[in-house]
C-alpha cells in the first residue's frame, strides 16, 4: 500500500513539472537547466501567394551600360548588398487593388450600420434581415464582451480619448446588400445611401459610390526619428487617412491631344482589364495598400487556433532592392533579361514599350500593346519576375536626390528617415510609353509622391528573416 502511494506521489510530481515547463506558472527552466520554451524547430517563412523569393547578395548598383545622360542622379555605380525578400511576381493588378477598395468600402459601411443599429436587438447569426443584425458583435443578444473589452470601453477606448475600441468589433458574417431591391429596411437604406453621390452630382442619374469618402486609416512608427531622439513613444506614430480610389482621369490628363476616354471610362473597373496593372495610384496609396495587405495577413494568423508567428509587414521595395531583383541574378545586366537587345532571336519584343518614334504598336505578333499589357505576357527574368522592364513604371520607397547613392549605406541602402519627408520619389522600370533606353535596370526616374500617372504602378515585397529556413509555398 505504501509503495502504491509513493508511486502516485512521484507521478503527480512528474506531471506537475511537465506542466510547469510548458505553462507560465512556476519557476523557469527544466530540472535546473536553462531550457527555452517552445519548439526547437527552425522558423520557416511562408511564401505569400503570388510572390517569389529573391536570395540576398551583392551587386553593382547603377548604370552598367552606356549612360547617355551622364547625370549623378542616374549614374553613380557602387557595390551594395541586400538581404533576402519575397517580391510580387507581377505588378499589382486592377483585380487585386479592387479587393483593397472593396474591403475598405465594406468596413466603412458596416461601421455606419453598426453605429445606426445602436444596441441592435439583432441576434448572433443574423442574416441581415434588419439593421439590428449589423450591430457591433458585443452588443448582440447572448454575446457578452470579454473582460478586456469591458475595460477598454470603461476607459473610453485604448487611447483613452474615444479612439480604438476593441468592443466595437464588426460582425463580418452578416451579408451586406448594395442592391436597392434587397435593402432590409428603411434605416438600412438611409445609411447605405449616404455613401453614394447625391442626386445633384450624378451624371445620367448613375448611382455610384462617392469614392472620396472611402478612406483607409492606419498608422506607422517613424522608428529612425524615435531612435535618434532616444524616445520611443506614441509621439512618433504617424497617422494617415488616405482616399484610396485610383485616379481614373489620368488617361485624359496625361495626354492633352489624344482620345483616351475609353480607358478613362473602363480601365479600372471593367473585367476586360482585371489582369492589367493598376495605374493612377499615388505613392501614399501604394503604401496604404501595403499596410492593408499586412493587416489581413495578421488578422488571419490571429484567427487560427494554433497561432502563427507575427507576419512580416508588406512594403514597397527600396531602390536598391528593386534594381537587384530586376537584374535577375545576372551581373551588370543592362535589362532584366541580360541584354543588350530588346528583341529575341525571333524578332519578338521582350517588354512592353514604345519601339519607335510615334509607334506604340508596331506589330501585334511581336508582342506590342497600344497601352499597358496584361501581366505575365512577356518572359520573366532569372528570379521569376515579370515586367521588371516596361508595361508600367513602379514606385519605390526611396526618395530621389543626388545624395541617394552617395550617403546611403552599402548594406541594404535606404534613406528611411527621408522617405516620407521627401516629395520626390524614385520610380523604376520604364513603361509602355517609354523608349527602350528608359527600360534599363540602372535607369532612375522620379515623380512627386502625390501624383498619379497612367504609366506608374507598383509591386510589394516582404522581408525574409535572416534566420529563416527554407520557405514554403502558400496556396491560393
Automatic annotation (TrEMBL):
Q: Which Gene3D superfamilies match?
A: paralog of FGE (formylglycine-generating enzyme) (3.90.1580.10)
Q: Matching NCBIfam families, A to Z?
A: GldK
Q: Can you say what this protein is called?
A: Gliding motility lipoprotein GldK
User: Which keywords appear in this protein's UniProt record, sorted alphabetically?
Assistant: Lipoprotein
Report any Pfam family annotated for this entry: FGE-sulfatase
Entry's Gene Ontology molecular function annotations? formylglycine-generating oxidase activity
Q: Which residues form the Sulfatase-modifying factor enzyme-like domain?
A: 50-105, 217-461
